[in-house]
Amino acid sequence: MPAPCPSGNSRGRPPPGRRPDAFTLVEVLVALAVLVAIMAIVVSAFSAVLHGWERGRRALDGLHRGEFVMEQLADALHSSMVYGAARKPQAYSFDVVNAGDQVPAGTLSWVTTSSAFLPPRSWLENVPHRLALSVEPQANGQLAFMARAWPYLADTNEVDFTPVFIAPEISGFACQVYNYEAQQWDDTWASSNVSPAQVQITLYVNEAANSAPLVLQRLIEIPLGATNAQQRTRIDMFPPPVTSGGGRSVGGRGGRGTRKARQDAGGAGRGGSAAPPGSGAPAPGRGRGTAPGPGR
To answer: Are 171 and 137 in contact (CB under 8 A)?
Structure first.
């Protein structure tokens, strides 16, 4: 008769008090649950980091495009062309229209000699032309910033209004004009042949589909603009000091008459009374024309 098995079981079962060499089903299920949880956390973190990086890249690209549009717009405004001539009052008009509530979709049109927003080697470069900026829907329904240019004296019925520049990253555009008399920003400009002295441009740049757009603002001063639309004049923000006699100082903008009056008055004040005109005698106190005094 064969001896009994040391394990105490002829079927290979472990003896009492000893763990089996393999994992149980419960242990396998628990390990799988922990592994799935760790993988879910890693995937979620990686997805959040990837989404944040992609969002930052889009925001940076939109910011660069917005800055480019703003620089082009400032260059075009600095090169604006204005004439106060009575003929063709609308030929050089500065037109501002603001529309929309939360994200404005305004339009701006004026005459400029800048090559901003024009395609390369355009025949309108460095020649007077009318530039119109607006925000309009594209074929897919998405709003985009568009620029159009045409000869400022051309008939509008013969003008090709195809956009020459499109920026889909910009979904909003607004322009405000500073009113120096009322000390406030206005949405309209009533003058026809005169440009304003200072404008505030606002661009709305798309960051994501469901997020609020980035807002870029810039104050631009137009060198040939006027601060008074009715009188078509420019207020001097730094006027020369006024003298006690009511005239302006010599170094200011008082004119040639003020400088000559001061010279005549100075000659009379140094040596006494000024010589009468036409006498041929030099004015006293003038150095070369004065007689030497006693003791010289």
So the answer is: no
Cα gap 204→174, rounded to integer Å: 9
Q: Tell me the pLDDT tens digit for each residue of 151-188.
A: 988 887 778 888 888 888 898 999 999 888 888 898 88
Angle at 203 between CA 200 and CA 209, to 5 degrees: 160
> CA-to-CA distance for 200 and 184, rounded, in angstroms?
11
With a CB cutoff of 8 Å and minimum separation 6, the contacts of 273 are 284
At 83, list the tokens.
């004439």
CA distance linking residue 229 with residue 222, whole number of Å: 14
Place of tokens 């609308």: 90
In the numeric block, which tokens belong to residue 179? Answer: 């009113």
Q: Is 211 helix (H, G, I), strand (E, B) or coil?
A: coil
Q: Which residues contact 212 (CB under 8 A, 6 or more apart)?
A: none
Q: What rounded mean pLDDT belongs to the chain?
A: 74
Give the CA distances from residue 153 to residues 87, 159, 277, in Å, rounded to whole numbers and listed in that order.
12, 10, 56
Q: Is 265 helix (H, G, I), strand (E, B) or coil?
A: helix
Q: Are 174 and 104 in contact (CB under 8 A)?
A: yes
